[in-house]
Structure of Major facilitator superfamily protein:
Amino acid sequence: MKQDYINLKHATLCSIAFLGLYVAVYSTQNVQSQIYDIDGYKNLGYISNAVAYLGQGLGSIFCVYVMQRVGDVKAMAYSSLLSLPFIICLILPALNTDNKADNNFFFSQSFVTILTIYVSFLNGFGGGINQPASGKYISDCATENTKGFFFAFFWSFYMGSQVIGNIISAFALGYFEQYYYVLIMAIICFCSGMLLFFLKQPEVHHNVLRSVENVTLNAASNQSIDPLNQLMIDAIQAHNTLEEQSLKDNIKSLWGLVTQKRFRLFIPQLCWSGVSIAFYSGNLVELMALTVDDDEQVKFKKSMLAMIAFGAGEVLGCFFIGFFVDKFGSKVASVVNIILVILMTLSTLGYCIAWQYGWQAFLMCFLWGFQDSATNTHSQEILGFEFDNNFEPFSVYNILQCICCATLQIVEISVQTRRDYIIFTVFIGVIGVFCCSTMLFFDFREHKHGNTDQHEQQQLHPNAQAQLTLNDSHQIEEDNQYLLENDQSNQIYNGEQRKHSQDITEVSLED
């Protein structure tokens, strides 16, 4: 229905901003390992990626606290600017193509290493805030009926950055000096960060609808309860509780979520997303470069051209799994994810055995992007709709993802030869199948809120619908006055002027 897509314009602007931001960030991360190696800084690219993901994990711990203080929109906007120094810093190795380290302190190994680690940490810390904040923002834009579409829509832009970024990388690094590439990415990053400042808060109604349904059923069994007033009291109390939480309370709350039995089943799939990122950002480009027998510029160009297929897989995979989520449910989507991981592993193993750049490189990259997009989109819709709130789960997701990614980035330094890649690929494939298989035992809430259950509830409580119509004009006037009085202390929410809660409730009731 039309009401399900009322926030599509907000989701679109957010998606476009993240497209530009991660065109710059992800393409830079994809190529930095090779750039640092070529320019005489050896494995600094791997170390940079590992530090970035450690910073991202730490940023995720502070994410909930920051969002509660400034709102998810400003949290995304300000944190996105922390990626700019990381990109600009790459200008040093780019200018050091003639190995000036012996004559200039600013190109020395020690200075470049310290600076790179520092800006990589800032970049990761910013990502640790803006990525969970974007997940919360998109889940606020979506409804239970459109969660698969909205997360697929956002992910197609977010990881579409791999297509555009890798096209720019292929031609900029193939035909121009490295510093031109760095300048282009810095400009894109800055403009995208500025765009996030123009985001508006979406009209959140899926959580309100659930609350209305619960209060309605209580009201039908107890005529003395006013469902509208009870809903507003619960909303105000919940909001005040969140604003009163300290950073220590936030950390305790995150730990409490991790220790929940239901969430523990979800942890392996969240960890798999970190493993996947580590491989495609650290090993995939390096693997293809090893199989190209040519000069460094040609290796760059061919590797990044194949990575365009990776980006195409990212764009298509999210809509593919989104269809399964909305049509058949998240449990069936879990089976699809397992199949995709197996196909991706077989294609990578085949490339390692053939050890020759060709069409297999494009197939391998496409399947890596396809499965990464599918598992991440699946995970994000679960994070947004399967737990009591939609900000703490995204923070934990980022923390676990970053720990696994950073750990594997360090391990990848030792993967150098054809034999290493074959063994490592088999190991990654086994881990992937295991991690995605745990979701087959996950108790999805969506099965408990189907149309059949709603129909049975209406039969058990025939007066519920009548109570929420509020046809009595006098009752409406009293409720409006109640909302105005109780909303004064909550006019500032997510760092912006809120609409009155009355507007949210009316939208929900009309739906």
